[in-house]
């Protein structure tokens, strides 16, 4: 019992003084929370920068269709036309069914299926087009570097004409 009595006053003693400076603790706590939230924001920024680094590593691995402006527009255009044609064709072919609701549902399903098929086909085609474009640019760069080397190897003056005049 003596141990309980000794423990009980020590528990009550800190509680009484803590009640008085509680607003100061809240203010300090608020500042600490702000610092913690800033640290968390910094961590989020670090995560974003790390994510950006991962994207850079992925882009170094090979060309991306999503990064090619003409490919993005071409794929989007193919998807929209595919969905529209699929919807109209599916709706037209399912009109002889029992109800308009069934025809509408079939048209929507046909539109979604054609949208996916058009997307896959467009990505397939644009992958090849981007690769061909890159190969063409590599060949142009190689030709330009060869021409620059050839220009550096040629002497500035033309010695053949100078020797012809001397003779």
A few lines on this structure:
The chain is mainly alpha-helical. It is built from 5 helices and no strands. It folds into 2 domains: 1-58; 68-154.
Write up what this structure looks like.
Helices cover 87% and strands 0% of the residues. With 167 residues, it is mainly α.
Features:
single chain; 167 residues; mainly alpha; 2 domains; rod-shaped
Radius of gyration: 37 Å
Helix and strand composition category: mainly alpha
Give the termini distance in whole angstroms.
128 Å
Give me the strand/helix succession. Answer: HHHHH
Count of discrete structural domains: 2
How does the overall form come out from the CA principal axes? rod-shaped
**Count of individual helical segments:** 5
Strand content: under 5%
Helical content stands at: over 70%
Secondary structure tally: strands: 0
How are the elements arranged and paired?
Layout: H1 2-19, H2 22-61, H3 69-93, H4 100-153, H5 159-166
């Amino acid at each position: 019992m003596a141990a309980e009595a000794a423990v009980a006053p020590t528990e009550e003693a800190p509680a009484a003084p803590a009640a008085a400076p509680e607003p100061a603790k809240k203010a300090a706590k608020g500042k600490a929370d702000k610092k913690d939230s800033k640290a968390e924001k910094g961590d989020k920024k670090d995560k974003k920068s790390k994510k950006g680094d991962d994207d850079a590593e992925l882009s170094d691995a090979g060309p991306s269709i999503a990064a090619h402006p003409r490919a993005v527009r071409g794929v989007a255009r193919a998807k929209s036309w595919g969905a529209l044609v699929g919807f109209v064709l599916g709706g037209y072919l399912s009109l002889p069914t029992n109800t308009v609701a069934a025809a509408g549902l079939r048209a929507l399903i046909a539109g979604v299926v054609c949208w996916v098929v058009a997307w896959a086909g467009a990505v397939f085609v644009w992958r090849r087009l981007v690769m061909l474009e890159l190969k063409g640019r590599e060949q142009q760069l190689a030709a330009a570097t060869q021409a620059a080397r050839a220009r550096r190897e040629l002497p500035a003056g033309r010695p053949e004409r100078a020797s012809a005049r001397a003779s």
